[in-house]
Q: What sequence folds into this?
């Protein structure tokens, strides 16, 4: 009975930490400052029967800052820092579970699988960010979770177009094997 309670507590803590990480990611990328990108691009996608995920514009500058290039790079640095902080917290809890003498073998195995998944996400995120920069975007940040992939890019002159969204979507789906409907593509303004 005590073993079942401990196992339940371990699963509960793991679930709580994952929920916190997902919430932090969601609150970061779903902030009120997000604005829908050009209605024309969305209408073109809808008319073409696009299955691409949501495309939005993210305000990367304070309302006082005026959107300078420094502020844009600060946005991407902050996004990477937030992503890493959430991941570090989740990994700490998972590692504690793996090394715990009180945790069941099932809990340890599941925690090990989640650690492996997070490591895979991290590698794919870094690869995609490098590929996006190589394709001409000044900067980019990618966040991969089990059911969503968020991509924020520094838009080219003239803003992010439907063609850009399609190219990014193809790049991400090729690298991750994810469905295009899982994508959330945003531009930092």
A:
């Amino acid at each position: 009975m005590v073993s079942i309670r401990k196992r339940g507590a371990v699963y509960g803590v793991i679930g709580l930490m994952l929920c916190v990480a997902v919430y932090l990611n969601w609150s970061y990328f779903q902030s009120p400052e997000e604005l829908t990108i050009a209605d024309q691009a969305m209408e073109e996608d809808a008319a073409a029967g696009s299955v691409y995920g949501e495309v939005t514009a993210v305000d990367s500058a304070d309302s006082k800052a005026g959107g300078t290039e420094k502020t844009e790079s600060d946005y991407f640095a902050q996004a990477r820092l937030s992503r890493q902080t959430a991941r570090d917290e989740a990994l700490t809890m998972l590692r504690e579970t793996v090394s715990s003498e009180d945790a069941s073998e099932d809990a340890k195995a599941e925690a090990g699988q989640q650690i492996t998944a997070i490591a895979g996400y991290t590698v794919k995120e870094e690869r995609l960010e490098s590929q996006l920069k190589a394709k001409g975007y000044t900067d980019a940040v990618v966040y991969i979770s089990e059911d969503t992939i968020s991509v924020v890019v520094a838009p080219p002159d003239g803003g992010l177009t439907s063609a850009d969204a399609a190219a990014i979507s193809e790049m991400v789906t090729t690298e991750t094997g994810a469905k295009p409907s899982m994508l959330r593509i945003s531009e930092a303004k």
Notes: The first strand starts at residue 35 and ends at 36. The helical segments are 2-29, 39-47, 69-99, 105-134, 162-176.
